[in-house]
Design goal:
Two copies of one chain form a homodimer.
Chain A lengths: L1 H9 L14 H12 L10 E6 L2 H7 L8 H4 L2 E8 L4 H15 L7 H11 L4 H25 L3 E5 L4 H7 L7 E10 L17 H4 E3 L1
Antiparallel strand pairs in A: 1-2, 2-4, 3-4
Helix pairs in contact in A: 2-7, 5-6
Chain lengths: 210, 210
């Protein structure tokens, strides 16, 4: 746990990446597994995760990302995209996965499926998208921590124009909407922000024990 | 990293906690530090975190939490609450913290503060609340992973009536809104779900590399 906390203290939102350094395939696969194993509401994982390596696409994304250099300089750009159509299909696909993974007949899962549907289907379209988007932040939090343990730098990025991302990446056609991104790679020695002290609320301010 | 991934494989949404087992103060403090060090948009941490130990309050929360036993049986109940009033004060408080932590004159931070205000202040009330709520999910994701490394069980909980929580806990008066919760403690040997295989989308299904 000391190591976990030290990693969190080490990490910071990297402003300037060393464009010459690439994450190894082994480390990238480990980070993908961390994202894949992340918790989500009912385990539904109502999202997809894009890993952008292509330089041309990243050059197109940069101007609609407040011009941030991390978009093009980081080793990889990860974009979390939530499902737009949160409907019975999403739940039925999940039930099929449960059935296959656990060797349970699909009929035995019907009541549980109906329960999930009764909770999710009646939500408004906006509420569904917000619910799905929130789940991606669990995976994002997990990614940031796991990367830090590997001494891989990260910059979580909300500062982009989601509609433009959706257009450039053709996401709408895939029933997806870009939610939040993370640039991952290695800090540049020139990034002065790495020397800034971390700013956080005090324990007293943040927590209230009842 | 193997240890990190093994911990994620070990964890599951615990359905039945052993009500006799309590998390040590040392471990609880470590988990609080993990939450406190979690990333958030601009580092603003637009939330508070309640740690509910009181049995009477937990008994009041259970019926408005779909009756889930985790609410009363877990060692601790953590409730993430986002700030309702996302305004200039939140940013000014943050700037004061930056100034104190880094020994920088507050005047030197004015441009950065104005930039943040220009991005956040114009958002609609709903957009602000959603933005703040999403940040709590980063901390939640971090909490789940860190707890697993300590072999502490968790159950993330969205299944509660936020308005009722806000009423019971007097949150509105504090400018807060309950967002998501996590029961933390130790699994009961009787919890059958601990033996179920983990269900996740395949790497092929979840990721798209471009």
């Amino acid at each position: 746990m000391n190591n976990y906390i030290e990693s969190l203290q080490w990490r910071y939102a990297t402003k300037k990446f060393d464009a010459s350094k690439k994450i190894s395939e082994e480390d990238l696969n480990a980070l993908k597994e961390v994202i894949r194993l992340s918790a989500s509401s009912y385990g539904l994982q109502p999202y997809k995760v894009l890993i952008i390596e292509n330089d041309d696409i990243r050059k197109q994304l940069q101007p609609v990302s407040w011009g941030q250099s991390q978009i093009v300089d980081a080793s990889h750009l990860i974009i979390f995209c939530n499902e737009i159509n949160v409907n019975d299909d999403l739940i039925d696909n999940y039930l099929e996965n449960v059935s296959n993974t656990r060797g349970v007949a699909i009929e035995e899962l019907k009541d549980y499926g109906d329960f999930m549907k009764s909770k999710i289907t009646p939500l408004t379209s906006d509420a569904k998208i917000n619910w799905a988007a929130k789940q991606t932040y669990i995976a994002l939090g997990n990614l940031l921590s796991a990367a830090a343990q590997l001494k891989i730098d990260t910059c979580p990025i909300e500062g982009f124009e989601p509609d433009k991302y959706d257009e450039i990446l053709g996401l709408k056609e895939q029933g997806l909407k870009s939610t939040v991104a993370a640039a991952i790679g290695y800090r540049s020695s020139e990034d002065k922000t790495q020397f800034f002290a971390k700013v956080r609320k005090s324990t007293q301010e943040l927590f209230n024990t009842i």
